[in-house]
PASTA domain-containing protein
Amino acid sequence: MMKTQRKVLVALTLMTAGLLSACSPEDGSSAVKTVTATVSAAPTSAEESRPAPTASPAGAAPTSEAPTVSFSMPNEVGKGLQEAQDDVQAKSGNPLFVTGSDDATGAGRAQVLDRNWKVCSQSVAPGTAINEDTRISFGAVKLTENCPS
């Protein structure tokens, strides 16, 4: 462990111990203890040095939003439900991209094991440009069943 990391770890440990003792005074009083810690760690080598962030150019508005990921919705009808979900995640470049599903027969069954279901319909048409805020839902039936017409 590097010297700087060790200092930070020790400081965090001391801060945690201080906070825990402040939460539960042993004498039963309601006194609050204040714990203050200062951590300053200078880089130990040129490799650890990082340039400071630069200011925005004059007149440029600061941006606080991350860029929006956009992709074309693939055709998932006929694929396994798990495969369709994996495909949307891969195409979106976001492993946390969430899709929904429901029982296409209308029986209200839950898709507990997605690998046992196949996609009959999708709420977003293939080729539609979508982003991470788009809600996608698949209508599915068990692998041994036919899709409703």
Observations:
- The beta strands are 70-72, 99-103, 117-122, 129-131, 136-142.
- DSSP finds two helices and five strands in the chain.
- Residues 29-56 have pLDDT under 50 and may be disordered.
- The helical segments are 3-23, 81-92.
